[in-house]
């Protein structure tokens, strides 16, 4: 395992993203929706870095089995809050193929959200012909290596690491 982003680097990016998001949404009512389980660490830290009153909800979706993408999206849990009329910021740990985030953005759009934006901890440098091209806010941009830590997993392991590492 090679550490790519240390916990102090992650904390610095979270603080900067929180400040940017605070300014963008100032005067608006914001709802954070975390994609579980991967987005949990990122969402907990980012929510505390956003200096606004927030509604917080979560949605469990999956497109991976083990370490491979299935190409299909499975909804494993649903929202508690009605997204209609809300400013939604979707939080996830990684933008990989972009299909999960695109599908979730479409889901909120169809349910009448006032606005839908995205924030991810890591965005991989990949072509995304069928997915969301880029997140609105990104912690780090990286290559295509398989990553673990800070919510990123390999078959549900390593999510609890305080750093982000490449699993080779």
Automatic annotation (TrEMBL):
GO terms for cellular component: cytosol. It catalyses: IMP + diphosphate = hypoxanthine + 5-phospho-alpha-D-ribose 1-diphosphate; GMP + diphosphate = guanine + 5-phospho-alpha-D-ribose 1-diphosphate. It comes from the Bacteria. The keyword Transferase applies. Keywords: Glycosyltransferase, Transferase. GO terms for biological process: GMP salvage; guanine salvage; hypoxanthine metabolic process; IMP salvage. Gene3D superfamilies: 3.40.50.2020. Residues 4-128 form the Phosphoribosyltransferase domain. PANTHER family: HYPOXANTHINE PHOSPHORIBOSYLTRANSFERASE (PTHR43340:SF1), HYPOXANTHINE-GUANINE PHOSPHORIBOSYLTRANSFERASE (PTHR43340). This is Hypoxanthine phosphoribosyltransferase. It comes from Victivallis lenta.
């Amino acid at each position: 395992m090679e550490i790519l982003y240390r916990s102090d680097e992650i904390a610095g990016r979270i603080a900067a993203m929180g400040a940017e998001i605070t300014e963008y949404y100032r005067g608006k009512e914001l709802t954070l929706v975390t994609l579980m389980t991967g987005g949990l660490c990122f969402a907990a830290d980012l929510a505390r870095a956003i200096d606004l009153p927030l509604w917080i909800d979560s949605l469990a979706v999956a497109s991976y089995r083990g370490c491979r993408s299935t190409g299909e999206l499975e909804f494993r849990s649903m929202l508690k809050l009605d997204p209609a009329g809300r400013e939604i910021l979707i939080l996830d740990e990684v933008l990989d193929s972009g299909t999960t985030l695109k599908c979730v953005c479409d889901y909120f759009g169809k349910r009448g959200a006032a606005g839908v934006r995205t924030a991810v901890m890591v965005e991989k440098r990949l072509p995304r012909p069928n997915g969301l091209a880029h997140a609105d806010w990104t912690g780090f941009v990286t290559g295509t290596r398989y990553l673990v830590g800070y919510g990123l997993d390999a078959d549900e392991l390593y999510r609890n690491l305080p750093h982000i590492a490449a699993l080779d």
